[in-house]
Amino acid sequence: MSVGPTGQSGPTGPGGPTGTPPAAAPPDPYAPVRTRGYPKLLLTAAVIGFPVCAIAFGFLAVVHALEPLLYVDLPRALGFAGTPLWWPLPVLALAGLLTGLAIRYLPGNGGHEPADGLALGGPPLLSALPGVALAALASLAFGAVLGPEAPLIALGGGLAAAAARLTWRGTDAAGVVAMVGSAGSFAAISALLGSPLLGAFLLMEVAGLAGPLLGVVLVPGLLASGIGALVFTGLGDWTGLGTYSLALHDVPRAAEPTVPEFGWALVIGVAAACAGTGIRWLARWLKARVIRHRVPATVLMGLVVGALAVGFSAATGKPAQELLFSGQSALGTLFHDSAGYSMAALLLLLLGKGLAYAVSLSAFRGGPIFPSLFLGAAGGVVLSHLPGLSLTPAFAMGVGALAVAMLRLPMTSVLMATLLMGRSGLTVMPLVIVAVVVGYVVTLRLTPAPAAPGRPAPAPSAA
């Protein structure tokens, strides 16, 4: 026996004290930070954060300006005393035509398919960005039930990556372009969500980052998102348009969680998982038929969304716009004016907007986050009328549970629901965690497992 260099005894033999070749030292995961190029990468991310977030702010400003223009100002300019009941039908049909043409004929397929969830497939090429922007504008501003987060991720990442390609040369250019593109997406989505921390968790869970590499990759994005938050705040104050960030104001302080509320957390988690699974199934079933005849099918889907809005307005007497759009700006109204909704109106809103959400996911372009938050919140408002559950925790649990059912991102869903509730967020967080965990597990159990590699999926039964 002999003592090896590590101080452990073992038999000697060829190749070293143990008879095997000496193991190579593990690579240093923080080596990129120690290179000379990393400070340059951080500077690039910081500089790119300014124009990327300014463009993201402009995109959101255009979307929000077009909404009242199309649904309030245009009908009056055409001689109507107000917005006609049937007005959403031609507007959504036009939205379907413009979106379908952008997807069919412009590079980039109009961005990613929202029915497939929120995904990061790398920053798009610069040539694809006009199609992404046009398809998103035609969808979001005209009333499709989708959010702006996916187009912002694509626009921010594509612009940042294009700038990096122009300014960075060398053997590591491909890796730098990918990292700067991620930083651009990070900056755009963080400013929209109102928190760089929330944006970090979102992109971390979507990209599957973990370990020491997580910090190396996220630091440029954190820097860019911090700069972007300043840009959003500055432009919002200067223009008077606000920041378009996810936030509720004047949330009443919640009481400490009770045992019945933990029981309701289980119920809300299961209900949200079932609802989210149904919405995703319907969206994918419709999507498989839309892609066969993209333009006419997208027009038809627009008419379906418009018909749902008309039916909701006719049945409740409320504006059709309450069923349309992402629901981002309506979350505060839903929370503070929940007493103004009858139970029947709330149930019709849930059903109609849920169906419009699935239809919009199948054909239009946008993100899945904000409609899921609104639908979860509306479901929480409905349940808050039942014994043992107050409004604030019901609202927060509904938001978190349906978000995780649609996104399958548990950490992000907990943070969104918690930060949305402001000062009461920490109080209701234990309830939100239970609802999100239950919703996440039940959603995964309801989702069919993917087919094994090399083995076709089983054929559907003829029965």
Description:
It is found in: Membrane. Keywords: Chloride, Chloride channel, Ion channel, Ion transport, Membrane, Transmembrane, Transmembrane helix, Transport. It holds the Pfam family Voltage_CLC. It is a multi-pass membrane protein. It contains 16 helices and two strands. The chain has helices spanning 31-34, 37-77, 88-105, 129-140, 149-167, 173-193, 196-207, 212-239, 259-290, 294-316, 331-336, 343-363, 369-383, 391-407, 410-420, 425-446; strands at residues 2-3, 9-10. The protein has a two-stranded antiparallel ribbon with strand order 1-2. Strand 1 (2-3) and strand 2 (9-10) form a beta hairpin. Residues 1-16 and 459-463 have low confidence and may be disordered.
Roughly what is the average pLDDT, rounded to an integer?
82
User: How much of the polypeptide forms β-strand, as a percent range?
Assistant: under 5%
The whole-angstrom Rg is 25 Å
Helix share, percent: 55-70%
Number of strands: 2
* Poorly predicted regions: 1-16, 459-463
> How would you sum up the global shape?
globular
Number of distinct helices: 16
Distance between the termini: 71 Å
Structural class by SSE content: mainly alpha
Q: Describe the largest sheet.
A: 2 strands, antiparallel
* Order of secondary-structure elements: EEHHHHHHHHHHHHHHHH
Taking strands numbered 1, 2, ... along the chain, how are they ordered across the largest sheet? 1-2
